[in-house]
From TrEMBL:
Keywords carried by this UniProt record: Oxidoreductase
Lineage of producing organism: Bacteria, Pseudomonadati, Pseudomonadota, Gammaproteobacteria, Oceanospirillales
Source organism of this protein record: Alcanivorax hongdengensis A-11-3
Gene3D superfamilies xref list: NAD(P)-binding Rossmann-like Domain
Family the UniProt entry places it in: Belongs to the short-chain dehydrogenases/reductases (SDR) family.
Molecular function GO terms recorded: oxidoreductase activity
Name of the molecule in the record: Dehydrogenase/reductase
TM annotation in the entry: none
Length: 245
């Protein structure tokens, strides 16, 4: 039987690349989506294809543009003529203080964190149903407990969390839909001033690793056949005694 196929958005680097490598290491074929990170995406695809020929495909798309998202869905189905898993990982994160938030901020944060995952889920639902596949959304603990001056980001991730639960009902029983909600794993590239305080707010008193998220995605997608509509917190216990980051 042909090995299953996963599309991971924003998978050229950071957590997305770890997810792609982990799924590939477990025998899946992977579709690596990127926007600007062409060099990293090509290097990752080349590495995976050296390990197992014709096991990684590369697609570029701007997730801010609905027509580009729909084209990505079409191209993804053509890569290997099947699709078993959609991982909505791509995300933007930056502050939007209420007095400074613009229409452009709204579009950039809501489109990448909520609208693009919905469009991809909508477009790929028939292919995923045909393979009895699943969708994994990368959410955030800030979907439930807001981060100061990040209202638009928190709103978008809260919408993604509700989309996860709602689609689990709508697409079941053929397609399972779950989420992974990371805590402190990799700091945003524009940084946060209180990294030590955030780390100390976790029950485990440390940061996690991208591999922790990748392992959760693998388990939910490939081993948790009776789990749907759930959002798994992979946060070192930070959500147990939350202090604002």
């Amino acid at each position: 039987m042909a090995s299953p196929v996963a599309l991971i958005t924003g998978s050229a680097r950071r957590i997305g690349a770890s997810i792609a490598r982990t799924l590939h290491g477990h025998g899946l074929r992977v579709i690596i989506h990127y926007h600007h990170s062409a060099d990293e995406a090509l290097a990752l695809a080349d590495d995976l294809n050296r390990q197992r020929p014709d096991s990684a495909c590369l697609l570029q798309a701007d997730l801010d543009r609905p027509e580009a998202v729909r084209e990505l869905a079409s191209q993804a189905q053509a890569c290997f003529d099947r699709l078993d898993l959609l991982v909505n990982n791509a995300s933007r994160f930056y502050p939007t203080p209420i007095g400074q938030a613009s229409d452009e901020d709204w579009e950039r944060l809501v489109h990448s964190n909520m609208r693009a995952p919905f469009i991809l889920s909508q477009a790929l639902a028939p292919a995923l149903a045909a393979s009895h596949g699943s969708i994994i959304n990368i959410v955030d603990i800030y979907a439930e407990k807001p981060l100061r001056e990040h209202t638009l980001y928190c709103m978008a991730k809260a919408g993604l969390a509700m989309m996860t639960r709602s689609l689990a009902r709508e697409l079941g029983p053929a397609v399972r839909v779950n989420g992974v909600s990371p805590g402190p794993i990799l700091w945003p590239e524009n940084g946060q001033d209180n990294q030590q305080a955030i780390q100390q707010s976790t029950a485990l008193k440390r940061c996690g690793q991208p591999q922790d998220i990748a392992d959760a995605v693998y388990w939910l997608s490939q081993q948790a056949g009776f789990v749907t509509g759930q959002i798994l917190a992979v946060d070192g216990g930070r959500s147990l005694s939350y202090s604002q980051g």
